[in-house]
């Protein structure tokens, strides 16, 4: 059921009036909410939309803004791609209205702009992994957009990012992430000494000039090997980056791994590897692909392994200082309460504070491959336990929608992509916004993950 804010507020007031109060000073009643079930607030769709847009293949959210990629969009050129920005209060409370459709300034046919997206505050990043440079097909690019660039509330392009050592077929921009003034871009087909070993690049605002986004580091694994594809997924939170290498081999082929890199590791503003993450039970299974998806928030990292146990899938939670100072140790393996073979739980993951969301885009919740996503909470079912709190599905779920193909969460808002939805034609795509009404309306959103000052892992 999709709920609009005025009705929701009335409902919450009525619920609150009967109970859930606690005595405060002078006999006042103070709300004591600990969170409620996430409700579907809005279904997002491209405007205009068309077949093969793949809207919802990538999603991100920060505060009152959401961005959704549509890498197959043909408006600018065939397969050039686009990205859509939505504002929570555009067109009315909880309306999540479209405010901008983004294109690259030099967009061209087949670029797949929107294959990856990220947003932090008033800055958005969009990857175009098949963008070409002269003589360098599919070397890739990423584009930075800023709010109020080119006019009040306009989101204008401020920078095109490319790798300092770009080469053909690197697919720089396959994955992107942003936290405050730092952007990370994955280049999983980079051949930095090994064929398709992969890499990721770090860019900083104001590097080499005011408002310029300059490259400060190229990240590679200390034990890089051919076909690891480091940078297939990337995430950043404050002073830490995590990058997935799903074809990495530990004791078994393609078990997968993820690498954590830290700022100032090898000197001021230098980024160095601080940990390699892998699950001990993945090393006995061929092709689990840990690191297919990654996420990080403060001192908590999550890595998805969608191929775990005949594609049932799993996601692993790692914590900083677990098992020793600055050690990143595994604290949980997450599996959906009703997941079965071929659901591909962990195809997508996201984390914000004490909440994790994991997509299972081939789940068949009554409909073939309609898809779902699962919410988990820290300390649910016991101290430091990560327990499932809810399973999310679309209110208008249909077969083969692949809901859960992309997920994002920030505070009390989650966005789930369903890029195979057919509302405007085959694979036109859609995305859904969910939220926790009690926390959102009575306590307000917690600080956005983008601010490093809010992310001290303790």
Question: Which labels suit this protein?
Answer:
single chain, mainly beta, Methylamine Dehydrogenase, Chain H, four-stranded antiparallel sheet, disordered C terminus
Mean pLDDT: 88
Assigned CATH architecture: 7 Propeller
Structural classification: mainly beta
Strand order of the largest sheet: 3-30-29-28
Unreliable residue stretches: 8-34, 443-458
**Name of the CATH superfamily:** Integrin alpha, N-terminal
Report the span from N to C terminus.
39 Å
| Domains, number | 1
Radius of gyration: 21 Å
Count the E strands: 30
Number of continuous helical runs: 3
CATH topology: Methylamine Dehydrogenase, Chain H
The main β sheet shows up as: 4 strands, antiparallel
State the share of residues found in helices, binned by percent.
Answer: under 10%
What is the molecular shape? Answer: globular
By CATH reckoning, the class would read Mainly Beta
What fraction strand? 35-45%
Question: What is the secondary structure topology, with strand pairs?
Answer:
Layout: H1 5-18, E1 21-23, E2 29-31, E3 39-44, E4 55-62, E5 65-70, E6 82-87, E7 97-102, E8 113-120, E9 123-128, E10 141-147, E11 155-161, E12 175-179, E13 182-187, E14 199-205, E15 213-219, E16 233-237, E17 240-245, E18 257-263, E19 271-277, E20 293-297, E21 300-305, H2 308-311, E22 314-320, E23 328-334, E24 345-352, E25 355-360, E26 372-378, E27 386-392, E28 406-410, E29 413-418, E30 430-435, H3 437-443
Antiparallel strand pairs: 1-2, 3-30, 4-5, 5-6, 6-7, 8-9, 9-10, 10-11, 12-13, 13-14, 14-15, 16-17, 17-18, 18-19, 20-21, 21-22, 22-23, 24-25, 25-26, 26-27, 28-29, 29-30
């Amino acid at each position: 059921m999709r709920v609009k804010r005025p009705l929701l507020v009335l409902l919450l007031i009525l619920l609150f009036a009967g109970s859930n109060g606690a005595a405060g000073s002078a006999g006042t009643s103070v709300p004591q909410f600990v969170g409620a079930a996430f409700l579907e607030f809005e279904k997002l769709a491209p405007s205009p939309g068309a077949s093969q847009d793949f809207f919802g293949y990538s999603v991100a959210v920060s505060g009152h803004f959401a961005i959704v990629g549509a890498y197959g969009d043909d408006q600018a050129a065939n397969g050039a791609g686009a990205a859509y920005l939505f504002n929570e209060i555009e067109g009315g409370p909880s309306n999540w209205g479209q405010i901008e459709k983004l294109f690259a300034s030099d967009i061209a046919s087949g670029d797949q702009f929107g294959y990856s997206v990220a947003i932090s505050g008033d800055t958005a990043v969009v990857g175009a992994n098949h963008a070409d440079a002269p003589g360098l097909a599919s070397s890739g690019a990423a584009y930075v957009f800023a709010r109020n660039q080119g006019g009040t509330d306009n989101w204008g392009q401020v920078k095109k990012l490319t790798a300092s050592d770009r080469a053909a077929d690197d697919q720089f921009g396959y994955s992107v992430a942003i936290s405050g003034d730092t952007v990370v871009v994955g280049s999983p087909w980079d051949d930095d000494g090994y064929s398709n070993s992969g890499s990721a690049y770090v860019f900083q605002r104001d590097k080499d000039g005011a408002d310029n986004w300059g490259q400060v580091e190229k990240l590679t694994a200390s034990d890089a090997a051919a076909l690891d594809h480091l940078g297939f997924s990337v995430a950043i939170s404050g002073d830490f980056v995590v990058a997935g290498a799903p074809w990495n081999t530990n004791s078994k082929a393609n078990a997968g791994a993820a690498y954590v890199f830290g700022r100032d590791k090898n000197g001021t503003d230098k980024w160095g590897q601080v940990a390699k993450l892998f699950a001990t039970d993945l090393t006995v299974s061929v092709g689990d692909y840990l690191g297919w998806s990654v996420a990080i928030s403060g001192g908590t990292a999550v890595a998805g392994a969608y191929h775990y146990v005949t594609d049932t899938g799993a996601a692993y939670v790692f914590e900083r200082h677990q098992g020793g100072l600055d050690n990143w140790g595994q604290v949980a393996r997450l599996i959906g309460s009703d997941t079965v073979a071929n659901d591909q739980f962990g195809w997508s993951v996201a984390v914000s504070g004490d909440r994790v969301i994991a997509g299972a885009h081939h789940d068949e919740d009554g409909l073939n491959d309609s898809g779902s996503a699962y919410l988990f909470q820290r300390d649910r079912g016991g101290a430091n336990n990560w327990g499932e709190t809810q399973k999310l599905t679309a209110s208008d779920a249909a077969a083969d929608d692949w809901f859960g193909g992309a997920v994002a969460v920030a505070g009390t808002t989650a966005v789930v992509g369903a890029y195979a939805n057919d509302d405007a034609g085959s694979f036109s795509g859609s995305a859904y916004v969910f939220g926790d009404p009690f926390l959102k309306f009575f306590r307000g959103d917690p600080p956005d993950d983008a601010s490093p000052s809010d992310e001290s892992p303790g």
